[in-house]
């Protein structure tokens, strides 16, 4: 494939690629057959949507796409036991992970139970003291006082802790990669169990919890009773799906689309309070969930009190919601400062080892376990390689990894744990966590590098920036953005279309905040377009564009509608540039 606009190395070191002739032809045919706008036809063609399937794709409905919950193994056992606990007024505990997916999953159960007039104990482990997932002490303690423990977004690999829950039944609702054997729980509902067919592998844990509640409600209807309104809970499923970077394909598209509509009604005190502290001034979008709400919910588990996020999402008290949202907002600011310090050190250390190795990694004394995952993401983005970042304390290191498309990091980490090089480790293709003994750190990373090299991680060239076409500045309108949005929601597995503006002149450029860049550009033929580049001064992008000296550039990014003072205006979220 030839370089788009002849850009083989942009200002951020990426090679630009455009849509192939096949996609261009498919888009033209789609436009003719359906009468849809050209830009929208292009997005659909890239996603492989045919003219026959276009109408259904543009209006994804849960009625058409929601799978039968019973298609998942152990679902009938889990739903039956949960309903029996509710009817028998038994004591229920919910054990969740400390991230957005875990918090949303726990909140779904707590809210459903509350609407049924029942309460449950919430237990979220402390990231630093207890680490990810169930542990022996917590499970034994919960089992002493409860009849049923529901583990959400965790538990699939927790053989020992599940065995420690003597006297209570344990039900696991998870989506993390399963091992060859499952823990001795009453039910393990997980689309990523090894004996599942993988058809629902893209679901996050909150979607698995939602499916169990769908099944429980169905069982109640058969008995002539009514369960709580599940459609009103889709805002939580949408938030978890986007924040956990689950691919926006299949039923996930419908869950997020419907969930955003629910969220726009502003009925949930926790999400309303969070939207307000994040200064969200327009209807919620997938972008808001991933970049404004998600990081704040996560901040409690990263550097604060682990259960803050789940409590915020579950509360129906507006005053409590405001207090929790403000605390999380404050923690998120602190998290950003901690992250910036760790990122600078990790980047320098990884660069010294070499950015072109199959694995890019860094480890540091006292690096906060709550930010190593985000820093691993930044390393991965900068190098286009799988990345691991580890915080060392005492005799061990706790780390987090992020992968690139086509390289299965979770499977390699699991193999490392099975070989005894890690104290523990697990995850999925794109993200994984691990604990390693300090003296085995180098050995473990060498072996991981070797396993990833076998998958071709060392052969990956410069990152590609995929572009959907060229636009003139006059074509960048609010109407165009609205037409494209009909193919959304956009996110993981379904990127928003990205356009290039060729050979433009920068009319205005200014640094805003610590590392962002605002600019205005035009091609001389139409009106000028405003652009914002977040984090531009963390790369070569900001310094070069602000000192443009009248040079002309190709600019690339995604179009969005910016609402300012009640006025709607189109804006380019600038991602890359190259000298024309």
Automatic annotation (TrEMBL):
<dbReference type="InterPro" id="IPR001667">
    <property type="entry name" value="DDH_dom"/>
</dbReference>
<feature type="domain" description="RecJ OB">
    <location>
        <begin position="468"/>
        <end position="576"/>
    </location>
</feature>
<comment type="similarity">
    <text>Belongs to the RecJ family.</text>
</comment>
<dbReference type="Pfam" id="PF17768">
    <property type="entry name" value="RecJ_OB"/>
</dbReference>
<keyword id="KW-0175">Coiled coil</keyword>
<keyword id="KW-0540">Nuclease</keyword>
<dbReference type="GO" id="GO:0006281">
    <property type="term" value="P:DNA repair"/>
</dbReference>
<keyword id="KW-0378">Hydrolase</keyword>
<feature type="coiled-coil region">
    <location>
        <begin position="314"/>
        <end position="341"/>
    </location>
</feature>
<feature type="domain" description="DDH">
    <location>
        <begin position="91"/>
        <end position="241"/>
    </location>
</feature>
<dbReference type="InterPro" id="IPR038763">
    <property type="entry name" value="DHH_sf"/>
</dbReference>
<dbReference type="InterPro" id="IPR003156">
    <property type="entry name" value="DHHA1_dom"/>
</dbReference>
<protein>
    <recommendedName>
        <fullName>Single-stranded-DNA-specific exonuclease RecJ</fullName>
    </recommendedName>
</protein>
<keyword id="KW-0269">Exonuclease</keyword>
<feature type="domain" description="DHHA1">
    <location>
        <begin position="361"/>
        <end position="453"/>
    </location>
</feature>
<dbReference type="GO" id="GO:0006310">
    <property type="term" value="P:DNA recombination"/>
</dbReference>
<dbReference type="InterPro" id="IPR051673">
    <property type="entry name" value="SSDNA_exonuclease_RecJ"/>
</dbReference>
<dbReference type="GO" id="GO:0003676">
    <property type="term" value="F:nucleic acid binding"/>
</dbReference>
<dbReference type="InterPro" id="IPR004610">
    <property type="entry name" value="RecJ"/>
</dbReference>
<dbReference type="Pfam" id="PF01368">
    <property type="entry name" value="DHH"/>
</dbReference>
<dbReference type="InterPro" id="IPR041122">
    <property type="entry name" value="RecJ_OB"/>
</dbReference>
<dbReference type="GO" id="GO:0008409">
    <property type="term" value="F:5'-3' exonuclease activity"/>
</dbReference>
<dbReference type="Pfam" id="PF02272">
    <property type="entry name" value="DHHA1"/>
</dbReference>
């Amino acid at each position: 494939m030839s370089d788009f606009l002849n850009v083989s190395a942009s200002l951020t070191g990426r090679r630009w690629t455009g849509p192939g002739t096949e996609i261009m032809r498919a888009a033209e045919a789609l436009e003719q057959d359906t009468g849809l706008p050209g830009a929208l036809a292009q997005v659909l063609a890239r996603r492989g949507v045919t003219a026959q399937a276009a109408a259904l794709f543009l209006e994804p409905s849960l009625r058409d796409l929601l799978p039968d919950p019973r298609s998942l193994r152990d679902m009938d056992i889990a739903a039956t036991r949960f309903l029996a606990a509710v009817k028998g007024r038994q004591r229920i505990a919910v054990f969740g992970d400390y991230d957005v997916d875990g918090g949303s999953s726990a909140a779904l159960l707590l809210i459903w139970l509350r609407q049924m007039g029942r309460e449950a104990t919430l237990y979220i482990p402390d990231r630093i003291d207890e680490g990810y997932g169930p542990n022996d002490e917590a499970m034994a303690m919960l089992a002493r006082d409860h009849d049923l423990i529901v583990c959400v977004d965790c538990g699939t690999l927790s053989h020992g802790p599940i065995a420690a829950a003597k006297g209570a039944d344990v039900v696991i609702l998870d989506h993390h990669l399963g091992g060859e054997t499952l823990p001795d729980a009453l039910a393990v509902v997980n689309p990523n169990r090894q004996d599942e067919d993988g058809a629902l592998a893209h679901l996050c844990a909150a979607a698995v919890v939602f499916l169990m509640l769908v099944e429980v409600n169905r069982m109640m209807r058969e008995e002539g009773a009514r369960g709580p309104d599940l459609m009103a809970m889709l805002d939580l499923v949408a938030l978890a799906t986007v924040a956990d970077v689950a691919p926006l394909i299949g039923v996930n598209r419908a869950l997020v689309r419907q969930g955003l509509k629910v969220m726009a009604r502003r009925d949930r005190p926790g999400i309303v309070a969070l939207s307000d502290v994040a200064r969200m001034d327009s209807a919620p979008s997938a972008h808001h969930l991933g970049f404004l709400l998600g990081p704040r919910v996560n901040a409690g588990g990263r550097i604060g009190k682990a259960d803050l996020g789940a409590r915020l999402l579950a509360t129906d008290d507006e005053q409590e919601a405001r207090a929790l949202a403000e605390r999380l907002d404050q923690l998120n600011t602190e998290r950003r400062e901690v992250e910036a310090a760790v990122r600078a050190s990790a980047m320098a250390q990884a660069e010294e080892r070499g950015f072109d190795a199959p694995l890019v990694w860094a480890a540091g004394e006292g690096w906060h376990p709550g930010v190593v995952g985000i820093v691993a993401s930044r390393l991965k983005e900068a190098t286009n390689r799988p990345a691991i970042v580890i915080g060392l304390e005492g005799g061990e290191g706790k780390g987090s990894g992020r992968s690139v498309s086509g390289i299965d990091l979770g499977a390699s980490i699991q193999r490392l744990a099975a070989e005894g090089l890690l104290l523990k480790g697990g995850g999925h293709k794109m993200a994984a966590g691990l604990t390693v003994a300090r003296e085995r750190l180098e050995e473990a990373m060498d072996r991981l590098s070797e396993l990833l090299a076998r998958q071709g991680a060392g052969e990956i060239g410069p990152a590609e920036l995929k572009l959907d076409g060229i636009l003139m500045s006059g074509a960048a309108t609010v109407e165009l953005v609205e037409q494209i949005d009909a193919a959304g929601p956009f996110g993981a597995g379904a990127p928003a279309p990205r356009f290039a503006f060729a050979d433009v002149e920068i009319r205005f450029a200014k640094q805003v905040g610590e590392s962002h860049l605002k600019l205005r550009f035009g091609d001389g033929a139409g009106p000028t377009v405003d652009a914002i580049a977040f984090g531009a001064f963390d790369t070569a992008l900001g310094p070069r564009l602000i000192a443009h000296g009248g040079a002309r550039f190709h600019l690339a990014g995604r179009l969005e509608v910016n609402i300012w003072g009640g006025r709607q205006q189109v804006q380019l979220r600038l991602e890359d540039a190259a000298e024309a």
